[in-house]
Design goal:
Distance between the termini: 51 Å
Strand order of the largest sheet: 3-2-1-4-5-6
Oligomer: single chain
Radius of gyration: 20 Å
Mean pLDDT: 96
Number of helices: 14
Length: about 300
């Protein structure tokens, strides 16, 4: 693309279920993307899509204007940012880090503070929409940080998502993401209970879910997960292991601010039990399996 020289150069750290399609959407939009991740096949996928594979974090970030990170949890964010091989030690002054991981709000606040000492700007920009939203570039992106940094990041974020909102200072994006994960988990659990109830009652499940989704019980969750329920297809778009991590974030953050989450706490335990039963690698719609077990099915 002729405009590519004017676009900021991007380093992308973390090419998983979400990171790979998101980085590819930036390449399609004309951005120069250099990526690093732990899986060799993901680096090959990036190169095949027109990106550049780096051999280390340091190599990926050294010349980048913008560094986007998309890793599983707070310990990973700390591991890639800190230390002699990390982002902060190797990025150029004035670079902007967009952390799209879902982590504790405090981790985001600490990262922004430590980065500022090196002249590096940070926004937290976790996303909602799952693998499908990443592929289709229709993610919802909740951002925490300074207005000027949000404005600088906006053209990039608009290539990745549809609903992009600055929610407040550093950590605010993560707080809103935690609330998102609370709503999604409780919603999936309610849908799963309805599915088991409907099936045990002998109703046509496809018809029932179609009509429910057209009324007040309808939701993005039901639209996205209906086929998972119908086909018992739990190939991960968003793994139970990660939702377990997120439920820990929201219950902990809620305790810190004095908010009661009675239903959220129950669903957090159901997610934990599913993980303990070996279903951690399945999609979060597999909460259906927990309800089936409780209802006497052998799954």
């Amino acid at each position: 693309m002729s405009t590519s020289t004017a676009l900021p150069s991007i380093a992308w750290i973390g090419l998983g279920i979400m990171g790979s399609p998101m980085s590819e959407n930036l390449i399609k939009a004309g951005y120069s993307v250099t990526g690093y991740t732990l899986e060799q096949d993901k680096l090959e996928r990036l190169a095949a899509a027109g990106g550049t594979a780096a051999g280390s974090i340091a190599e990926a970030v050294k010349d980048a204007d913008v560094i986007i990170t998309m890793v599983p949890a707070s310990p990973h964010v700390e591991a890639i940012n800190y230390g002699p091989e990390g982002i902060l030690a190797n990025a150029k002054s004035g670079a902007l880090i967009i952390d799209m991981s879902s982590i504790t709000p405090q981790t985001s606040v600490d990262l922004a503070k430590n980065a500022a000492e090196k002249g590096i700007r940070v926004i937290d920009a976790p996303v909602s929409g799952g693998e499908a939203g990443a592929i289709e570039a229709v993610l919802s992106i909740m951002v925490g940080g300074e207005q000027a940094d949000f404005d600088a990041a906006l053209p990039i974020l608009e290539t990745l998502g549809k609903t992009i909102v600055l929610c407040g200072p550093h950590g605010s994006g993560q707080t809103v993401k935690a609330a998102n994960q609370l709503i999604v988990a409780v919603n999936i659990q309610a849908c799963a209970e309805a599915v088991v109830f409907l099936e045990k009652s002998g109703v046509n499940l496809q018809a029932a879910l179609d009509v429910l989704n057209g009324g007040l019980a309808g939701s993005t969750v039901l639209t996205r997960k209906k086929d998972n329920f119908l086909n018992r297809d739990f190939k991960p778009g968003f793994r139970i292991d990660l939702h377990h991590k997120d439920m820990g974030i929201v219950t902990d953050a809620a305790r810190n601010v004095g908010a009661a989450l009675p239903v959220g706490a129950v669903v957090a335990q159901l997610v934990a039990s599913l993980r303990a039963q070996g279903d951690g690698g399945l999609d979060h719609s597999a909460l259906l399996r927990a309800v089936e077990r409780l209802s006497g099915a052998q799954v």
